[in-house]
Design goal:
The complex is a heterodimer of chains A (241) and B (432). Chain A has 241 residues and is α/β, with parallel strands linked by helices. Chain A has seven helices and ten strands. The radius of gyration of chain A is 18 Å and the shape is globular. By secondary structure, chain B is an alpha+beta fold. Chain B is built from eleven helices and twelve strands. In chain B, strands 1, 2, 5, 6, 7, 8, 9, 10, 11 and 12 form a ten-stranded mixed sheet that branches. In chain B, strands 3-4 form a two-stranded antiparallel ribbon. In chain B, strand 3 and strand 4 form a beta hairpin. The two termini of chain B are 36 Å apart. Classes of the chains: A alpha/beta (241), B alpha+beta (432). At the A-B interface, helix 1 and helix 2 of A face helix 1, helix 8, helix 9 and helix 11 of B.
């Protein structure tokens, strides 16, 4: 089991945003069971940014899926604040995904038939509470403005560049003021300059107290995070800097 | 509040989904449209036919709930009716006989009061005595300009029980003093007869003591194809002894009473029992019920039509199901994304169901609109030839049936895609 990696200055401070203790995940298909994560320990505090590096198939995305409650761990413990959410029913997991997490993916996942503003607002039309249309639109525009693309609010995704699309996706992830931002290779489909802009936009979210977990292949982008982890054969370890 | 938010979310996202796939939605609506239109047409046809039957029944038998008492002619029965009904407003007596209007001592053009211009006739009204010997009252008479009509003498305003439609002129006035010149209101068949034949104004009532000079007041639609005239009983009885109407050779009596006229009917029964042969039993009292009017043929046609419509509806549902499954397949990423941002599985299923329900509802509204327009066109084009279609209003029951059919098809077609949408795994999709 990997030892819990906590920055010295964080020790003894407030309750972490999330804490994974000895988390394991094994894929069971038609073939032999394959261990993806093996005793992963991870702690994330408010305003902290973490990068997870690793080769393809090392389990980075699986780790993000477990943190984001897309999937469930086979073993170990998952604490969100002071709540143990290791065995959370799907209905409550959906509510937490809405209120606590923001997600950014490599492929943007914008809905082509909606405008940029509507794509951002769709995170607020999810059955978890209700906001009137005017308020939804105002918040969506504010989130787009934060990303510097408010002028593209009425544009549909096919008319946006890759960088613009990813910034719309980040605006969508931030529009509900999540406590934890999860980004799965968000620069994978972008050129270097645009990728840098996107990473900077993600990192800026931590200034407002949001915790960030960035899964990436790019060491330069990882270096911009406060802590860097390496995932290798299901084992997570912090990279000394 | 939460339910409301989820419902609104489902409707908003469902609406966006429909707008994004207009052509596909339209194509899935086509077969469903035919099915819903079939249901609407079946229901509308049945309701219209039923309304026509009820309307005809109201004209010929009486409105729903009316109590109808037929008094078989025995000595004194007509007197009993007249004595009992006189001065009451909760019942009216109809005393029937026949008369010939026109040239005296001739054979009328429509012996037996048969319809004019209908081809053929009923033949002469034979008069039979108690031994069974019958004679033709017109035997040996030359053919002439005279018309035989059925005569119904009324003790009060019949229209409370049978809503006869005045076509022209006016209805009988029961308030004033009786006239020695009987005032007649003709039905349409009689009016047609008197339009075709010019006849002298002389009326001979069977069993009458003398001929009278009638006056025509107006024309009503009573749903009867036989020439028929309505007259105040007191005006007819100036020329006809009331006991003649108790003679089975000449007349019969019918009483129509309000639903609550139980006491009157009991009085009639007691009085009738005092004069009738005990072997004839009690008077038969029938309560007219609109419920009993649905003939088996219409019921069967309705079921066959509905059966075919349901089949087409199922095909329409299969179309929605097919399109729904294909759409869910295409929208896996969208649904996974929606789950990722916190949309519960149930709401995802609700979104898909909302789309199919909206599609079904839109289709139903289109089919109902087509039904209303089709009925209006049919009424305008064929209303003259088919009275059933004249001035007919679209029945609301057909609209309700159409909406229900559209929603049922939406549910049937949307359930499986909804279940699939709810089962989409986020992790697998978002990792791809």
């Amino acid at each position: 089991m990997t030892a819990v990696q906590v920055l010295p200055e964080r020790q003894g401070t407030a309750t972490p945003l999330l804490r994974l203790v000895g988390v394991t995940k094994t894929l069971r298909g038609q073939q032999e069971p394959r261990t993806i994560l093996s005793g992963v320990d991870l702690t994330l505090h408010s305003g902290e940014s973490i990068a997870v590096l690793g080769r393809s198939g090392s389990g980075k995305s699986t780790l993000l899926s477990l943190i984001g409650l897309f999937d469930r761990a086979d073993g170990g413990q998952y604490m969100l604040g002071e709540r143990d959410i290791t065995r959370l029913p799907e209905r409550r997991a959906a509510a937490l995904r809405s209120s606590e997490f923001g997600f950014v993916f490599q492929r943007f996942f914008l809905l082509k038939h909606l405008t940029a503003a509507q794509n951002v607002a769709m995170a607020m039309v999810n059955g978890q509470g209700w906001l009137p249309r005017r308020k939804r639109r105002a918040r969506a525009l504010a989130a787009l403005d934060q990303m510097g693309i408010a002028h593209l609010a009425k544009h549909k995704p096919p008319r946006l560049s890759g960088g613009e699309q990813q910034r719309v996706a980040i605006a969508r992830a931030l529009v509900r003021d999540p406590k934890i931002l999860l980004a799965d290779e968000p620069t994978g489909a972008l050129d270097t300059d645009t990728g840098n802009l996107v990473v900077e936009a993600l990192r800026a979210a931590t200034d407002r107290g949001c915790g960030l977990v960035l899964v990436t292949h790019d060491h330069d982008h990882a270096a911009k995070m406060q802590r860097v982890f390496q995932l290798d054969h299901g084992v997570l370890s912090e990279v000394a800097r | 509040m939460r339910l409301s938010g989820r419902l609104r979310s489902a409707l908003i996202i469902g609406g966006q989904g429909i707008r994004a796939r207009k052509l596909r939605t339209f194509l899935s609506m086509i077969s469903l449209f035919l099915g819903v239109l079939g249901v609407v047409a079946a229901q509308a046809g049945q309701v219209i036919a039923y309304r026509a039957l009820v309307a005809n029944s109201e004209l010929t038998r009486g409105v729903d709930g009316t109590r109808s008492v037929y008094l078989p002619p025995v000595d004194g029965s007509s007197e009993i009716v007249m004595d009992t009904i006189r001065g009451r407003d909760d019942a009216v007596a109809l005393l029937s006989t026949s008369a010939v209007i026109g040239e005296p001592n001739v054979r009328p053009v429509n012996e037996g009061a048969s319809p004019i211009g209908g081809g053929g006739g009923y033949g002469s009204s034979m008069v039979c005595d108690s031994s069974g010997d019958c004679v033709d009252p017109n035997e040996g008479k030359p053919s002439g300009q005279a018309i035989e009509v059925r005569v119904t003498a009324l003790t009060g305003d019949l229209r409370r029980f049978r809503p006869l439609h005045v076509q022209s002129g006016r209805w009988l006035d029961f308030a004033g003093a009786p006239s020695l010149s009987p005032r007649l209101v003709l039905n349409k068949a009689a009016a047609k007869a008197f339009t075709m034949f010019q006849v002298p104004a002389e009326m001979r009532v069977q069993g009458g003591i003398a001929n009278s000079t009638p006056r025509f007041l107006g024309v009503v639609d009573d749903g009867n194809s036989q020439p028929q005239v309505y007259v105040r009983s007191d005006e007819l009885l100036n020329w006809l002894p009331v006991d003649v109407l108790s003679d089975p050779q000449f007349g019969s009596a019918l009483v129509l009473a309000a639903p609550d006229a139980t006491e009157l009917i009991e009085i009639l029964k007691r009085k009738y029992a005092s004069i009738a042969d005990p072997r004839m039993g009690d008077l038969y009292v029938e309560t007219i019920s609109a419920e009993d009017l649905m003939p088996g043929e219409i019921q069967m046609m309705r079921w066959v039509f509905l059966g075919v419509s349901i089949l087409v509806l199922l095909i329409g549902s299969a179309g929605i199901l097919n399109v729904g499954l294909a759409t869910v397949g295409e929208r896996i990423e969208e649904f996974a994304l929606r789950r990722a941002v916190g949309t519960p599985r149930l709401l995802l299923a609700g979104i898909v169901l909302a789309e199919t329900l909206l599609t079904g509802l839109l289709t139903a509204l289109a089919a109902i609109g087509a039904g209303i327009a089709g009925l209006a066109v049919a009424s305008r084009m064929f209303g003259d030839r088919h009275p059933l279609l004249a001035n007919v209003a679209f029945p609301w029951e057909a609209g309700v049936a159409g909406v229900a059919a559209g929603l049922v098809a939406g549910v049937l077609g949307g359930l499986v895609p909804a279940a699939r949408a709810a089962r989409i795994p986020i992790a697998t999709v978002m990792r791809a």
